[in-house]
Amino acid sequence: MVFWQGYLSDEVMGAFAPIVLYWIYSGAYQILPPLDRYRLHTRKEVEQKNLVSLPVVIKGVLLQQLVQATVAQLLFFITTDANSTGILVQPSYPAQLIQFFIAMFVMDTWQYFVHRYMHMNKFLYRHIHSQHHRLVVPYAIGALYNHPLEGLLLDTFGGAISFLISGMTARTAVFFFCFATIKTVDDHCGLWLPGNIFHIIFENNTAYHDIHHQLHGLKFNYSQPFFPIWDKILGTHMPYDLVERKQGSGFEAKPVKD
């Protein structure tokens, strides 16, 4: 039993719940007090280094989410058994947990290699992926600010392939896509808040991805959104030291040699 049962189908929730959650979670970061003592970059750096305005970022994210929701609806329509009785047979919790980890591995694998290729191919970087890196200093709302083609190839197709290979149901996919969305937003939030569970559990976190967004890190830390497995295997892993800046002005993630 889930709270939306009887009101919305699992397919509708799978397509739209991650979008709603994206704006709730990233919006919460946006309206937080300044919290300068926990920032990886000062507010002055955000204003000076970023090459795109907040309204443009919001429009770009909404465009990607429109495509994302459309593809998700098509995916669920294609994979739903037309002869189904409408009675959902949900796998056991251990089976769903295994599907979760399979989907995480598939998504990490897809995004690593597509993301890395977009950096290595000069044409793709210049005309497509560089749009995301116009946010030199990332913030939560800009987590999905991409060129529309990149959004389709990297995030939307990555989610679809993860869903198909893991064999999860639409109901399990609701939780997986929502979790992946929260993790992606958190990786771009630019804050190192005490007690953040993602910073405790995941090595691939806000500071890890911040290294990638800085000029010295464009050839490192491609892994997203969960684990740095492929970075470590293929030599693109850039660890970091988290150094506190003077006068309580936050932290700085400084790259160190592996």
Automatic annotation (TrEMBL):
It is a multi-pass membrane protein. Its EC number is 4.1.99.5. Residues 100-236 form the Fatty acid hydroxylase domain. The chain crosses the membrane at residues 12-32, 52-77, 97-114, 135-154, 160-182. GO terms for molecular function: aldehyde oxygenase (deformylating) activity; iron ion binding; oxidoreductase activity. It is found in: Endoplasmic reticulum membrane. GO terms for cellular component: endoplasmic reticulum membrane. The keyword Lyase applies. Keywords: Endoplasmic reticulum, Lyase, Membrane, Transmembrane, Transmembrane helix. One of its GO terms (biological process) is lipid biosynthetic process. Signal peptide: none annotated. This is aldehyde oxygenase (deformylating). It comes from Zostera marina.
